[in-house]
Amino acid sequence: MPSLTSPRDSCLIGISLPQRLRALDLLAHTTTWGFLWIVVTEITIFGWAVTGTVTAGPADALSLRLFALIAVGAILHMEATKPAEERRRAAHLSGEHIDHTGVWTTAGAFVLPVPLVVALVLIIRLRRYFIARKPPGRYVFTTFAIMSSALAAQALAVATPVHEWARGAPVDPRKMLGATIAVAAAFAAYYAAQTIVIGVARGLRGDRSWLAIMGNRKENADLAITLCLGLIAAWSSGVAYGLVLAALLAVVVGYTRHTQRIEQLELERDRLEVDALHDPLTGLANQRGFNPAAALALVADQARQRPTAVMMFDLDRFKQVNSRLGHLGANEVLKALALVLRASVRRDDLVCRWGGEEFSVLLPGTSRADAWAIAERIRAAVADMTVELTKAAGGRTELVGDFTISGGIALSPEHGTDLATLQEFADQALAEAKDGGRNQIRVTPAIPLPGPRHARERTVDAG
Q: In 3-state terms, what secondary structure has residue 413?
């Protein structure tokens, strides 16, 4: 299901339609029906909360005491886990995680009247806003979704004996099965309310996958634990003047910190895996990431009897660029070149920073003529490329240009069927382009040369 406080929606809401369209470029993602659903949902839940508050009457002393204990527990929990939660939210800008403040929202839904449930949700959400890293409109919509869950669970609890049991009323052992079913129904109401509110918004936006709407197994398991801890918190808030709740608070804080630590380790592991296969400067694949994917693409094209083009590119006179702009400026040029390469090829084409100022590109299912056209497009784009550099003194920026690139092309199967051979032929063509005056593209002749050279003939100064 969508997360308790940050659902997987990209549908934002705000005070006005222009604000909504500006926030995260919603115009490209949200339909008119999606906006209508958001507005209607907000109005409905707001009316539900207001009606329940007006008709509930004044809260009794027990409810006020339970509210105070649960609210204090929620605030202490948020403060004790704030630094790690802030890092967690920064890593989950898409909003896909479970917030364990649902423990306190669930507890309030089981033991409090509607006005205090509404107040509890608002206290928690206002406190969380300062580390939310979400646009205000989206945060408001998420708050309404959480409010719907709390009100739905509260309605089920009041309609069954769960509300009185959670507040300390004895449970007849003969009614344990019914009690279990009632609690499960309240959990289901909590789950269903957010799933419907957020899931419909996502579906109207175009994301109708069940995984996106219902959540994965890990998220749902985390949610189930959160709801169970909420039930325990509801019961313990009325036992021994809140001392049991204080003990549970330590458990909830420990569980949240454990979850945060596990997620941090998983993120670091994923980052290491990505870094191992990508060049840290340009973000392109490095040789370790490029070679297996390129070899697989070659085999796939050979099985389909399609041609494959392999290109080698080298930025001309890179040593002069380094001398003119310095190492930091040269790095910016390489990053800009990487963007040009990615923008000039198709989505399934493979681009690699081969080393230094040299890049390799593999184009699956590409003929000689098409490869030439793409290479020429890259050459022309580099010739037009400008890079914005910021000077160290005063922070003044300037645009620099006058860059050129040379390239060589080899094709499978006419020049070979393995990556190393094709890159050798493309490298030979690249050397000819360099020797021929630079800023040009050369294609390996249709009749292969006697054999690939295993050492480059151009000197280091040719770069």
A: coil
Structure tokens at 14: 């705000």
Supply the pTM of this predicted model. Answer: 0.60
Q: Which two tokens stand for residue 360?
A: 């390799």
| DSSP label of 405 | E
The domains of the chain are located at 17-276, 287-462
Beta-carbon contacts of residue 427 (< 8 Å; ≥ 6 apart): 312, 408, 453, 456
Distance of CA 236 to the CA centre of its chain: 37
| Strands in 378-427 per DSSP E | 387-390, 397-400, 405-412
Instruction: Compute the chain's Rg from CA coordinates.
Output: 30
- 391 vs 326: CA distance, rounded Å: 11
CB 286 within 8 A of CB 277: yes
Q: 5 near 146, Cβ under 8 Å?
A: yes
Q: What are φ and ψ of residue 439, in 5° steps?
A: 55, 45
β-sheet bridge partners, residue 314: 358, 406
Q: What is the CATH number of domain 287-462?
A: 3.30.70.270
What span, in angstroms and rounded, lies between the C-alpha atoms of 140 and 38?
11
Between the alpha carbon of residue 1 and those of residues 177, 191, 196, 249, the distances in Å are 26, 7, 9, 25
Structure tokens at 310: 């392999």
Between CA 55 and CA 114 the distance in angstroms is: 9
Picking from 262, 263, 245, 240, the residue whose alpha carbon sits closest to that of residue 103 is 245
User: For each of the chain's 463 residues, which pLDDT tens digit applies?
Assistant: 433 333 323 232 232 333 333 333 333 345 788 889 999 999 999 999 999 999 998 999 999 999 999 999 999 999 999 887 877 776 654 445 678 999 999 999 999 999 999 999 999 999 988 887 677 888 899 999 999 999 999 999 999 989 998 998 887 777 788 888 999 999 999 999 998 998 888 888 777 677 766 777 888 888 999 999 999 999 999 888 889 999 999 999 999 888 888 877 777 776 666 667 888 889 899 999 999 999 999 999 999 999 999 999 999 999 999 888 888 889 999 999 999 999 999 988 999 999 899 999 999 999 999 999 999 999 999 999 999 887 655 556 778 888 999 999 999 999 999 999 999 999 999 999 999 999 999 999 864 444 444 433 333 333 4
Distance in angstroms (rounded) separating the CA atoms of residues 20 and 16: 7
Backbone angles phi and psi of 313, in degrees to 5: -120, 150
